[in-house]
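Researcher: Let's do a round of design. I'm pasting the structure tokens now; please hold your answer until I've finished.
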């Protein structure tokens, strides 16, 4: 085994620290995903008159929380790796704050889409699998994110609608007796 030079993985070296960090972040990602799905499986065990609606809402919120968790873990991982390899992240954090402020002013439409998406989900206006009419489009909800809704229309395929542009919604699934 002398031909394998693994000195960069010796305890205390940057390679070792990066390996430990990578393993920790992967475990954190798996743990977060398990917590999110376990939480919603517990919520779904409560008696509900609309079991399918509760499942759809739980599935939608679990997917969104999982995505947000992955983005946060990835962001933290990038900054920790930069710090480990010797790059001072303080100027990056300060620059990110200033850029974030500038982007915030320039992206009012994106913020409107995001806030509308939160209210669509919290108010249970529709869930994945529901058949809805949004504007002139009628179809089945394929995916919901904070920014947009993906509608599957039989004629036109997948339709991406920004949540901020949705004025009125007719949910053709909710309220029907099965």
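Researcher: That's everything. Go ahead.
Model: Designed sequence:
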């Amino acid at each position: 085994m002398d031909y394998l030079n693994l000195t960069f993985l010796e305890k205390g070296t940057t390679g070792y620290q990066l390996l430990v960090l990578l393993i920790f972040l992967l475990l954190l990602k798996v743990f977060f995903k398990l917590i999110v799905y376990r939480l919603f499986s517990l919520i779904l065990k409560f008696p509900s008159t609309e079991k399918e609606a509760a499942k759809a809402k739980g599935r939608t919120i679990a997917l969104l929380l999982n995505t947000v968790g992955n983005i946060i873990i990835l962001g933290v991982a990038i900054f920790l790796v930069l710090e480990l390899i010797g790059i001072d992240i303080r100027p990056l954090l300060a620059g990110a704050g200033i850029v974030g402020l500038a982007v915030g002013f320039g992206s009012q439409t994106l913020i409107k889409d995001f806030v509308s998406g939160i209210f669509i989900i919290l108010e249970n206006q529709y869930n994945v699998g529901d058949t809805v009419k949004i504007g002139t489009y009628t179809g089945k909800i394929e995916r919901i994110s904070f920014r947009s809704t993906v509608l599957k229309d039989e004629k036109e395929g997948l339709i991406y609608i920004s949540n901020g542009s949705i004025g009125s919604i007719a949910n053709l699934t909710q309220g029907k007796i099965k």
